[in-house]
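Field guide to reading this record: the first block holds the primary sequence, the second block holds the structure written as discrete tokens, and the final block holds curator observations. Each block starts with its own label. This record concerns Leucine rich repeat containing 71, catalogued under organism Gorilla gorilla gorilla.

BLOCK 1 — SEQUENCE
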Amino acid sequence: MSSEQSAPGASPRAPRPGTQKSSGAVTKKGERAAKEKPATVLPPVGEEEPKSPEEYQCSGVLETDFAELCRRWGYTDFPKVVNRPRPHPPFVPSASLSEKATLDDPRLSGSCSLNSLESKYVFFQPTIQVELEQEDSKSVKEIYIRGWKVEERILGVFSKCLPPLTQLQAINLWKVGLTDKTLTTFIELLPLCSSTLRKVSLEGNPLPEQSYHKLMALDSTIAHLSLRNNNIDDRGAQLLGQALSTLHSCNRTLVSLNLGFNHIGDEGAGYIADGLRLNRSLLWLSLAHNRIQDKGALKLAEVLRAFELTHTEVVERRRLLLEKGTQERSRSPSSSRHGDSKTDREKSQMVGISNSALVDKTDKTQTMKTPKGLGKKKEKSWELAKKEEKSGSGQSPTQGTPKKEDATKAGKGKVTIPEQKPSRAKGIKIGSREKRSILLESELVVEATEVVNPLLEPVEHRDGKVFMPGNKVLLHLNLIRNRITEVGLEGFLATVQYQMQFSKAKSASKGPVGLLWLSLAKNCFAPQCPAYTIIQELMLPRDPIKAKLSEDEAMAFFP
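BLOCK 2 — STRUCTURE
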């Protein structure tokens, strides 16, 4: 019985291990399912962010925006944004520090060597150096990129993260492997940036097509441009000179241009000089370390003093004068519509007045005794006034100042008389009051035309030729380390002497004064050359920095 009872008692216990196995299998499958479900759901959610860089809203912090956009563009290794290192002041160790250094010499040597290796390795890594305003991460003032190639995708990242930088003032690219295509992309990026961006430096980026002139387009807002060490030759200088000014266009925003360390020769210097003929915005020009000889130096010196206008420039000047006259007449339609009728009526009135005046004069001479001298003076003044009424006033032989009476004759093909104010002229006035008004009108026209077009500046007529006073706006010219001899020095000596006389003649009036700083050192002439010595003596009082230093030295010696 005991065996029979044990057999059926053992049967219900047998399935327990089986049930444990089945329950264990169920729990393992549940755990696997629970582990596999997140793995299948999470990757799509995580992959959505890098695929949409356009949807990213920049925060204005360049470090975070650039890193996030690079990740979304698919970059795994990208440059980091760091603060630009500043040179440290010289450190003078004290005696106590030197004693401590000698005690811990082995440890310090090991740590210094490790730090130096790490610093050298970090130095060669691509970085984007920035200068901040008041240590604020959102106030990036300047950007420096040096020594690594800037691809078109990186420029796409910049087009997204640079516009929010509201205080960006300068971008410096040094040896970044630019091409003509990437330069075009970079130029398209500039209008998207803040309006405070006025300085661009592209150095060590030679281009096959030398398309640097695109940075100086008419719609460009760049004020300071540096193009050093780009292998720019005479062909590139020709494009840059045409970007400075032509007969029909002129760059009005560029203030400084650095073309140092290039391959510009005499021909290229001539093209730059042609660009300076009608440019009135460039104040600072550097052509240092080029290949300019006497021919190019003489062309540069020629445009800085009075030079003769070419035939095409004279024709363009006449066209501009006529166009200016028609514009002024269109601004005053009442005077232009009724100008002829008014002049006719005024002439008839003048004739009637003259007849009555003559009758009265004859009667008075019969009844009253007047002095003979006074009567002669009246007759002479009347004859002069009548001649002025018939013939009109002409252009002065020296400067060609416009006259006011020519408003009625501008439509008859007269070329030398469109610079007038017909809206102010209510007829033909005679006497000294008219002469004073003519002088005031000419002064106002000169001030206005200096801003509009250099061809409308006052000119001089000599021997049937038209001469402009030259470019007096350029203040700084650097020609260090070229190939200029004493022949080229004579041209600059004549220019400096002319500008000195011009500035003395117009010392009371406001306006450009000419060169304040001229550097011709380390060329193909001796430092003791007489022409070079005279140039230095003449330029010394004009240089504001040297003049200030000499005044400070004098005050130090004679307090």
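BLOCK 3 — OBSERVATIONS
Residues 446 and 457 are 6 Å apart (CA to CA).
The longest strand covers residues 140-146.
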